[in-house]
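Hey, I was hoping to borrow your eyes for a little while. A protein chain has come my way and I'm curious about its shape. Take your time with it, there's no hurry, and the full record follows here:
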Amino acid sequence: MDTKTLIIETIASATKLPNHEIAAILEVPKVPELGDFALPCFRLAAKMKKDPKLIAKDVAAHVKFQKGSAIKEVKVVGPYVNFFLSRSNLAETVLTEVFKVKDSFGAGTKKKEKVMVEFSNPNTHKTFHMGHVRNTPLGDSLVKILKFSGYPVIAANYIGDIGTHVAKVMWYMQKYHSLHEHQNQKNKGEWLGKLYVEATKKVKDHPQNEKEVAETLQRLESGKDKELTNLWKITRIWSLQEFKRIYEELGIKFDEWFFESEVESAGKKIALELLKEKIARKDQGALLVDLSAYDLDVFLILKSDGTALYGTKDLALAKVKFEKYNVDKSIYITSTEQIFYFKQLFKTLELMGFPKAKNCYHLAYETVNTPEGKMSSRTGEVILYTELIEKLKLKALKEIKKRNPKLRKTEEIAEKIALAALKYGMLKQASNKVIVFDWEKALEFQGDTGPYLQYSLVRAKKILEKVGKPSAKVDFNLLKADEEVALLKEILAFKEIVVKAAEQYAPYLVANYAFELTQAFNEFYEKCPVVQADKNTKEARTLLVWAFAQVLKNALDLLGIEEVSVM
């Protein structure tokens, strides 16, 4: 049992409260004189219906000191219980465990609940832009965290390959372009995105075109117009090829791919069944579910012309997920703009009598803006993923060559650094916070950035190259400096951070932790020499540096960030 768990269990035993409630409020004081851990008992007063000072005294009296115990001293200061640890015991407990389990440090035990995480979800015939890059690493990191925590997870992508946006492009191509004319486009996926912007403008400037787009959608959904269907199939492939190239570059894989076109027909059948069962009703030819009794307005599930909506298809997809894949929980990752929509969807599933409607969860994320403002795929005011990643790569390459003029494989290293900058920039904020992504700042090798984490790992590996392989048989009493203890506590904290990140669906907790761990290491690096230390101290500090490198790598793996050998 590690030291922190021992303290949590001691407090839980004294207060008769569950471990997770104690873990949620146990603090690490910023000032070492106030102990290694502190319990603010005023946060327990309401629940225990007791004076916080009396709670503090009861907890302190419950601590039993034994020879070799991790808890060296306990002090009560008003409503606080401050725990002082045996530094040698802390070092031995933490470093021995990391040395033993390595890549599995922080991993959870096997769980039974099967989870499907649906993320990325780009639309064909539109560009893959910086906004998608928030969704995609967020979902990928959550999948990694849940798997690391012991859950069986299915990573799913749901592609919007049918609908009004596709009909606009099909209409525009047939009316103003020819397929043959653009077969030689270098990047056909991006070109389709440009056509979408042009088509949207054409419809906006000439509203009479809306009727032609609607008719195009009807023909497309019916499948009877062979020429139109063929055009859709060819251009759909162009978009999918572009998406898969981007996912490969990002190092992101999906277990399942769903397509709106494949659930559209089933969704229409469900809509008609809901009408028959009087869960839905007809209004001016359209089908809707009245959710006003739940303060959710009305949920439109089929247009008056018989064409499908997002809700039509999502009703069918939910059934596929739970019935075909037998998942226990379905997590949808989409923008905050769709919060109300998902409340309507989940409530409709519940009214249908769908048994696992309450096991659907919407993880909403806020927008990504540039320093210049908000982006829009309709107006074309977006930064394309391809443009952004090229900028990041070029700047990273320039920085690497400035630092290491003779370095080989610079382009490969630059790509890893660029991706680290991009992913970390998207993951370090809570999902409900707006991100203002400044690509130049994201690439800085100092501060709260992905490259800073990579650089710190490189620094640790260079020390290990000089001092050799670590041993678990060291004098742990020598690791007693404040900077060493602070780093040990940060390493230990990884286990709890992973638990919280999995419970709260919050990869940003891991990202923030990685930065704090790295800061603790760099403070240790400045104050505690390793290579120049005496033999016994060098051995002990070598193990500590190795443990830091291992745990930082574990954290970066959960963020989808690759380490680099040099920078």
User: Anything to note?
Assistant: The mean pLDDT is 93. The first helix runs from residue 3 to 15. The chain has three domains: 3-85, 119-267+309-369, 385-431+441-559.
